[in-house]
């Protein structure tokens, strides 16, 4: 979650625009895609932050690259370029996702397990842990971790529910050793 006041303000603004235009899901998908590109392509970010390229040229490049994206997203990225705050884009995307999820009664969850979860297991985890945190549904990201030995660890925001064999063995070790 972003701690940047600037990112929070921009995310709130784009969220309200998307909500008023009934485009929450579309804008969210575009922001996720941009975030993925920025995380995997350092050259793209270097290009957009290069001091030798004019702000107008950078805005033109964004308009050409993001032709399939929602105009709200294109305008926001161009605005961040203009204000020299492009480094906040990932934080804005994260905060937007949090606002959108809260409005829809969902939350993001990381589920650590020793193997890939089936759709049925995902649904059960979503229902059970969603109730614990007051959400109707969880958007689950499954992370494979063989060191858990068995069971699952669920992380939803600041909440961590750990029912792994590894953690139970560690608890037993602490109890026996003292």
UniProtKB/TrEMBL annotation:
Q: Which residues form the signal peptide?
A: none
Q: Which InterPro entries match?
A: ATP_synth_OSCP/delta_N_sf (IPR026015), ATPase_OSCP/d_CS (IPR020781), ATPase_OSCP/dsu (IPR000711)
Coiled coil segments of this chain:
none
What's a Gene Ontology MF term here? proton-transporting ATP synthase activity, rotational mechanism
Q: Chief location of this protein?
A: membrane
Compartment(s) of residence: Cell membrane; Membrane
Pfam families associated with the record:
OSCP
Q: Which UniProt keywords apply?
A: ATP synthesis, Cell membrane, CF(1), Hydrogen ion transport, Ion transport, Membrane, Transport
| Membrane-related topology note | Peripheral membrane protein
Q: Name one GO cellular component term.
A: plasma membrane
The answer on whether this UniProt entry bears the keyword Glycosyltransferase reads no
Subunit composition and interactions: F-type ATPases have 2 components, F(1) - the catalytic core - and F(0) - the membrane proton channel. F(1) has five subunits: alpha(3), beta(3), gamma(1), delta(1), epsilon(1). F(0) has three main subunits: a(1), b(2) and c(10-14). The alpha and beta chains form an alternating ring which encloses part of the gamma chain. F(1) is attached to F(0) by a central stalk formed by the gamma and epsilon chains, while a peripheral stalk is formed by the delta and b chains.
Q: What is the protein's known function?
A: F(1)F(0) ATP synthase produces ATP from ADP in the presence of a proton or sodium gradient. F-type ATPases consist of two structural domains, F(1) containing the extramembraneous catalytic core and F(0) containing the membrane proton channel, linked together by a central stalk and a peripheral stalk. During catalysis, ATP synthesis in the catalytic domain of F(1) is coupled via a rotary mechanism of the central stalk subunits to proton translocation.
Which protein, by its recorded name, is this?
A: ATP synthase subunit delta
Protein's organism: Solibacillus silvestris (strain StLB046)
């Amino acid at each position: 979650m972003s701690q940047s006041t600037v990112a929070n303000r921009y995310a709130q603004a784009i969220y309200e625009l998307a909500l008023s235009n009934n485009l929450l899901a579309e804008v969210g998908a575009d922001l996720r895609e941009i975030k993925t590109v920025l995380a995997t392509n350092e050259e793209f970010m270097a290009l957009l932050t290069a001091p030798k390229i004019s702000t107008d040229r950078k805005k033109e490049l964004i308009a050409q690259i993001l032709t399939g994206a929602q105009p709200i997203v294109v305008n926001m990225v161009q605005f961040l370029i203009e204000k020299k705050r492009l480094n906040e884009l990932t934080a804005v995307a994260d905060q937007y996702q949090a606002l959108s999820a809260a409005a829809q009664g969902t939350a993001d969850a990381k589920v650590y397990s020793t193997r890939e979860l089936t759709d049925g297991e995902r649904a059960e985890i979503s229902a059970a842990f969603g109730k614990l945190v007051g959400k109707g549904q969880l958007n689950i990201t499954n992370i494979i971790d063989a060191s858990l030995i068995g069971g699952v660890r669920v992380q939803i925001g600041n909440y961590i529910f750990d029912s792994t064999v590894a953690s139970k063995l560690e608890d037993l070790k602490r109890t026996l050793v003292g």
